[in-house]
């Protein structure tokens, strides 16, 4: 036999789960579009850099926003990817290319990673109106 407080708690948790699923559906549409636009802007000077930047950002955005994996793990992965891509593209380390690519990826990764919590809160508050 459950108490009314437990029933109310279970109801609120069910509503929170539904709101999180709604946010997940929206992010599954927004993530690839953002990754594509960002890859076209920040990739280095060849097609492989553009394609792999798109794939890397899609995976990283999905991991930090939908799977909610630790943000700093993916910052390290993005930094290593940018360093390897930079060396393969330019033949040696190019500071401006690395700064442009990593800076854009890092900022948007942070927006998706940190912003997920705010999207969830906004969705819950919107549901109460």
Write a concise synopsis of the structure shown.
The protein is mainly α and 129 residues long.
- For the terminal residues, how far apart are their CA atoms? 32 Å
Q: Name the poorly predicted regions.
A: none
Per the principal axes of the C-alpha atoms, what is the gross shape?
elongated
Largest sheet: none
Share of helical residues: over 70%
Which structural class best describes the helix and strand composition? mainly alpha
Task: Tell me the quaternary state.
Answer: single chain
- How many distinct folded domains? 1
Order of helices and strands: HHHH
What amount of the residues lies in strands?
under 5%
Radius of gyration: 19 Å
Average pLDDT metric: 90
How many DSSP helices? 4
Number of strands: 0
Transmembrane segments: 25-41, 47-64, 71-90, 102-119
Keywords: Membrane, Transmembrane, Transmembrane helix
Write structural notes for this entry.
The chain is mainly alpha-helical. It has one domain. The chain is 87% helix and 0% strand. The protein has 4 helices and no strands. It has helices at 4-42, 47-65, 71-90, 95-128. The radius of gyration is 19 Å and the shape is elongated. The two termini are 32 Å apart. The mean pLDDT is 90.
Helix-strand layout with pairing:
Blueprint: H1 4-42, H2 47-65, H3 71-90, H4 95-128
Helix pairs in contact: 1-2, 1-4, 2-3, 2-4, 3-4
Key features of this structure:
single chain, 129 residues, mainly alpha, 4 helices, elongated
């Amino acid at each position: 036999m459950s108490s009314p407080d437990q029933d109310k708690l279970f109801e609120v948790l069910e509503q929170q789960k539904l709101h999180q699923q709604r946010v997940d559906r929206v992010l599954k549409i927004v993530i690839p579009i953002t990754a594509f636009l960002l890859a076209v802007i920040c990739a280095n000077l060849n097609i492989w850099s553009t394609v792999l930047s798109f794939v890397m950002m899609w995976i990283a955005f999905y991991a930090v926003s939908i799977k909610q994996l630790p943000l700093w793990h993916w910052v390290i992965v993005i930094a290593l990817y940018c360093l390897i891509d930079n060396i393969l593209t330019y033949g040696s380390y190019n500071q401006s290319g690395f700064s442009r690519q990593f800076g854009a990826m890092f900022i948007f990764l942070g927006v998706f990673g940190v912003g997920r919590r705010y999207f969830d809160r906004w969705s819950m508050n919107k549901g109460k109106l």
